[in-house]
Write a structure and sequence with these properties.
39% of the residues lie in helices and 22% in strands. It has 605 residues and is an alpha+beta fold. Strands 3, 4, 5, 6, 11, 12, 13, 14, 15 and 16 form a 10-stranded mixed β-sheet that branches.
Length: 605
């Protein structure tokens, strides 16, 4: 339970000492709800359950958002194409959540981003009727999208759509080819740094009294007769051979929010002959990142392809281009992008750009897996984006499917079911619960020039911090006031401050170099060096907080370097099988014996 005498921002700090204390709590206490999985759904469920006053624990095998939840298209959207598929319930639900996030729950993390829907031209005068029909068809769809947002969007938080001529579209997006273009429609959706939202959710849960531990892998279920009463946990940060590495956690109910690992949880029930009745199929989505200079435009693009849609999304000084939608049956921890994935995305986007992109333009590549409820369809793009909650065994709840935007609905649904079982009558209150950093954000943004002047920083630096931390920016400014060197840019990534690395290790649960370079920041895909030029400086800053000696710093850098090399190699491979084999050439930094050196691991120094 939350101590009312401690500020939420302080209570939500995920420090190394907090982790040690939470590990002790896991071993010693019994929880009302134990949640497995630190992605957006699991972290959202922890916030929901803790805000109802339940005694909650959240465990994650790797880092928060290490899987699907850090590898999305970075959009909070209603699913414009679901209107075309007449899935009005999905659009209604998602637009409601988009409005809540953008206006009430996380306005510091979710903000409007404009998109163009290009309208193809017909053949001269004879094509005029077709052009009119297409504009009316797409216009009606976008108008319905806006209407849904106005009716259900909780304050909307997004501007209305607008029709554009061919010349108007070209003015807004000069890189758009005009041959075959009749015009465009501009509409708005929401953009988010997905990994930062998940970390903020985990910290919000911690601020409400939840026990929150990463690098804690669920390896088995504890049962009494036909009831699940807890989970066996392995601490992946424990030294090799430590008697404390595995332990049992007692819980009145267990929620598995494990995404593409849902089937693994199901297999834990095989020995009692249960068939959970839910199956999740993984769909791989690959994204390319190119510099903003490679494409000239002030909006994003949404393009129809033969199998799905393609987004071109502005992302600070970059563009994100994605995504693919293909079945994936290989390693789920490190899905690999192949050369054929990259070639497909380049071919698709080049159909509408006046200057074709090549592999030389690519700064970064990332791949993630969507957890889709399995069905009879051959194509993953046709599988359900809806979610399901089931209780295959007394005391165990599985939540699966869904989409990033509707995480809060999934979390509320599964906690509702757990609360009914526990006889806990309090309903979900997360629709009215601002996440950490949201309270006071609007006033701080309005007064950002004064804030910058008081701390002797450029306004642009303060804006950067506010858009990543909201009102928690005050914590980072306090670090800089105490040590002005932390206002220095991070080596190899001047858009980030050294203070952000220190803060990630002190307050955001970062335990390894890749946690910072890949998720607390997005340096791993925003730079052509993929974070290699930032690794040494980042290790020094983290080590000062976490007590790393020179050998540990070198080991972290070596692990990260091996990861980058393996990813680059995988992206040269022709297909999924060879790309997967190349990516698995680098061992995972978690679970590797803490007392081994880099040479023992076969890693480069």
């Amino acid at each position: 339970m939350r101590d009312p005498h401690v500020l939420r921002s302080v209570a939500g700090q995920l420090s190394s000492s907090r982790r040690a204390g939470d590990l002790r709590r896991l071993r010693a206490e019994r929880f009302d709800v134990l949640i497995i999985g630190g992605g957006v759904t699991g972290a959202g469920a922890a916030v929901d359950a803790a805000s109802r006053g339940l005694k909650v624990a959240l465990v994650e095998a790797r880092d928060f958002a290490a899987g699907t939840s850090s590898r999305s298209s970075k959009l909070i959207h209603g699913g414009l194409r679901y209107l075309e598929q007449l899935e009005f319930n999905l659009v209604h639900e998602a637009l409601t959540e988009r409005g809540l996030l953008a206006t009430r729950l996380a306005p510091h993390l979710v903000r409007p981003v404009p998109f163009l829907v290009p309208l193809p031209a017909g053949d001269g005068v004879r094509g005029l009727p077709a052009r009119i029909v297409r504009r009316a068809y797409y216009g009606a769809g976008v108008a319905a999208y806006d209407a849904f947002a106005g009716l259900f969007g909780g304050g909307r938080g997004m501007p209305l759509h607008r029709h554009l001529s061919r010349e108007g579209a070209r003015r807004i997006f000069p890189s758009l080819r005009t041959d075959g273009l009749a015009g465009a429609i501009r509409y708005y959706d929401g953009q988010v740094d997905d990994a930062r939202l998940v970390v903020t959710l985990a910290r919000t849960a911690a601020s409400l009294g939840a026990t929150v531990v990463s690098s804690a892998q669920a390896v088995g279920l504890i049962r009494q007769a036909r009831e699940v009463t807890g989970v066996r946990i392995r601490d992946l940060e424990a030294p090799a051979g430590s008697p404390d590495a595995e332990f049992e956690v007692q819980a009145r109910s267990v929620i598995a929010a494990t995404g593409v690992w849902t089937d693994d949880m199901s297999r834990m029930l095989n020995d009692v002959g249960l068939r959970p009745g839910i199956r999740v199929r993984a769909s791989k989505g690959v994204h390319l990142v190119v510099p903003r200079s490679a494409i000239t435009g002030d909006t994003g693009l949404i393009l129809r392809t033969a199998t799905s849609v393609l987004f071109v999304i502005p992302w600070g000084g970059h563009w994100i281009i994605g995504t693919t939608d293909t079945d994936w049956r290989l390693d789920r921890s490190h899905p690999a992008a192949s050369a054929s994935d990259i070639d497909y995305l380049l071919r698709q986007v080049n159909t509408v750009l006046d200057r074709p992109l090549t592999t030389a333009d690519i700064e970064g590549v990332y791949a993630g897996l969507r957890p889709l409820l399995a069905g009879e369809a051959d194509s993953t793009s046709k599988l359900s984006r809806e979610h399901a909650v089931i209780e295959p065994m007394l005391g165990l709840l599985l939540v699966a499917g869904g989409k990033y935007t509707t995480y809060r609905v999934m979390a509320a649904d599964v906690v509702d079911q757990a609360a009914r079982r526990l006889g806990w009558p309090r309903p979900s209150r997360t629709a009215d619960l601002p996440l950490l950093g949201a309270d006071g954000y609007a006033a701080m943004w309005r007064d950002r020039a004064d804030l910058a002047r008081r701390h002797g920083l450029p306004v642009g630096v303060v804006e950067h911090l506010l858009e990543r931390y909201g009102s928690l920016t005050l914590d980072l400014l306090a670090l800089i006031d105490a040590d002005p060197l932390l206002a220095s840019p991070l080596a190899g990534a001047p858009e980030y401050l050294a203070a952000e690395v220190t803060y990630a290790a002190r307050a955001e649960g970062a335990l390894h170099l890749e946690d910072v370079l890949t998720r607390r920041t997005r340096i791993s895909f925003e730079t052509t060096h993929r974070g290699l030029e930032s690794a040494e400086h980042t290790a020094e800053l983290m080590g000062a907080v976490l007590g790393w000696d020179a050998d540990r710093r070198a080991r972290e850098v070596a692990h990260y370097r091996a990861r980058v090399m393996a990813e680059r190699q995988s992206q040269l491979m022709p297909d999924d099988a060879t790309a997967d084999a190349a990516r698995l050439g680098a061992p995972d930094v978690r679970g590797y014996a803490a007392d081994r050196g880099a040479d023992d691991a076969g890693l480069p120094r």
